[in-house]
Amino acid sequence: MSKVYNFSAGPAVLPHEVLLEAQGEMLDWHGSGMSVMEMSHRGKEFMEIIHQAEQDLRSLMNIPSNYRVLFLQGGASMQFSMVPLNLLGDRASVDVVNTGHWSKLAIKEARRYAGVNVVASSEDRNFTYVPASETWQRDPQAAYLHFTSNETIGGVQFSTFPEPEGEIPLVCDMSSDFLSREIDVSRFGLIYAGAQKNIGPSGLTLVIVREDLLDRAQPQIPTMMSYRVHADADSMYNTPATYPIYIAGLVFKWLKAQGGVRAMEARNEEKAGLLYHAIEQSGGFYHCPVEVAFRSRMNVVFRLRDESLEEAFVAGARAAGLVQLKGHRAVGGMRASIYNAMPLEGVKALVSYMLEFARQHG
Amino acid sequence: MSKVYNFSAGPAVLPHEVLLEAQGEMLDWHGSGMSVMEMSHRGKEFMEIIHQAEQDLRSLMNIPSNYRVLFLQGGASMQFSMVPLNLLGDRASVDVVNTGHWSKLAIKEARRYAGVNVVASSEDRNFTYVPASETWQRDPQAAYLHFTSNETIGGVQFSTFPEPEGEIPLVCDMSSDFLSREIDVSRFGLIYAGAQKNIGPSGLTLVIVREDLLDRAQPQIPTMMSYRVHADADSMYNTPATYPIYIAGLVFKWLKAQGGVRAMEARNEEKAGLLYHAIEQSGGFYHCPVEVAFRSRMNVVFRLRDESLEEAFVAGARAAGLVQLKGHRAVGGMRASIYNAMPLEGVKALVSYMLEFARQHG
């Protein structure tokens, strides 16, 4: 097998151009005689790499100057602890919206350190929608409001973002739709994202945090969990994940060459539109459980009317070079993750396969 | 510049064969059609990679079956918190040997969670030796005894390991001499090592822990800091640093092909011997501040009698393709890090340069 379209939910497909560039300079980065993996993180070569990556990200997302960008480790799971330990401050509790698997994990971990007020939940209809923000029971004393902009497993995405209320910062787990659409960073207090969907390889976590939030940490916080420590050291308090940062930098450069986030957003709309259209037009052979307004443009979740055909669907897809289409084991069904790096041709190939499979088995 | 010898203390030189192999399969790992960076961590391809890596490491180090191998993130700095949070149990304090920069950071962090009894310190002579274990003031009630087998900055290495006392486990930060010499794992309760010296790229931390130590964690420990959580999930509680794990696996395979740890130890002795010999024979032009018995075979620290020549030494070395020789900013001077992947030829080239430089400026 020499070429596949990889619909994995993460770690996920990377731009072909990025892999080619990384391959080309694997043994010698820009005439340094070293692989990026071999460079001291404090040497001038790697400092150039990380500075350029941050600058490109700032430009792509239009990040205001009073926000810090941190290159951390541990994934979103580590942020589930770091967010409350850093931002609870002198408040007793935090507000959280529960829209699925990742929200629930964030809630569970926050409860170890703080009261957690679930302002709204879509569990009543199996996490197939986002509760309207007018119905949320917000606490005016909350330390922050946390939500998950895209639920990777449920395939549910916020179509609009909540309004900040008073001084209560919005905190968003943007792991699976980071850089996929234009957002106004200034409306958020903190955004975090594991890299392994839209940014680069796993092992890297990006945090974008407003500077005034850096000094609310609990006194007993482990040093490596303090945003202030990492911010003061420009993400060099200890050795960062240098190679993942380098690949992320190549992805940012690629995104700029593609026309930036606005262009990606248009492409993502087109790709998701093709897939949802094919599902809707299948006469019920396929169906998507998620309400139309909240269907994710990143993770297209669908089922077959006849579940006994699922195995044949996956096997046939694999034979056609369309891999990693099985839904998460927690929910079953199918899932096509179509992040920025999934080319339109990959989605078209999947749609063709789906039509053909439905024709044969319908 | 196309070929250099890289004496960086970490991230550091990797085996040329490993980089070539990674380059060759960057776009397509073993016919999967995917880069390792793009693979789901739960897919069969990556499961094969991580299982093979663990198996090879177990075989290289002869790790007993009652020890778990964990592939974590956050480096040794994260372990400075995780070790006390997991191993303090119902004890009030921990024993620590202070042999330099990294010991001191481990002590500082442990003090956030536990009483810390410094059983011995070599600070009286500027961290140029390891205090004899007969002089250590050990506490029979300590939760564990922590030491740093090799101080990367000071260039000081334990030549023998302390004896375990009673039931008190030995905990060792082996970041900079892991896999460089034969050790008896069964004498330790826990060994940890950041990858970026002898294992692979930064962003990966290995922990080898005896199973009976997994259930002593403080109740308020963040989930991502619990060894028990990571052990129960076979390092897949969340997405691990997949690409660094893959490279580490290639390094382990390379080590086996080189003859294993015993062969590496002999090579490391030879390499360090050449450098220290050159220093000793320079008639005082170069000198090593570390006592002979504790000179590191991984990080050879030396000074020039005439410190005003240091800049010329570094510039000339760079011109000769010998890079990253400057000592850590905390101590100054020179440092040649000669981990497993530094070929003998690199050390010989450095020795030749040192002799020539001394001849010209002596």
UniProtKB/TrEMBL annotation, chains A, B:
Gene3D superfamilies: Aspartate Aminotransferase, domain 1, Type I PLP-dependent aspartate aminotransferase-like (Major domain). Keywords: Amino-acid biosynthesis, Aminotransferase, Cytoplasm, Pyridoxal phosphate, Pyridoxine biosynthesis, Serine biosynthesis, Transferase. It is an enzyme of class 2 (transferase). GO terms for molecular function: O-phospho-L-serine:2-oxoglutarate aminotransferase activity; pyridoxal phosphate binding. The gene is serC. InterPro entries: Aminotrans_V_dom, Aminotrans_V_PyrdxlP_BS, Pser_aminoTfrase, PyrdxlP-dep_Trfase, PyrdxlP-dep_Trfase_major, PyrdxlP-dep_Trfase_small. This is Phosphoserine aminotransferase. One of its GO terms (biological process) is pyridoxine biosynthetic process. Pathway: Cofactor biosynthesis; pyridoxine 5'-phosphate biosynthesis; pyridoxine 5'-phosphate from D-erythrose 4-phosphate: step 3/5; Amino-acid biosynthesis; L-serine biosynthesis; L-serine from 3-phospho-D-glycerate: step 2/3. Pyridoxal 5'-phosphate binds at residues 76-77, 102, 152, 173, 196, 238-239.
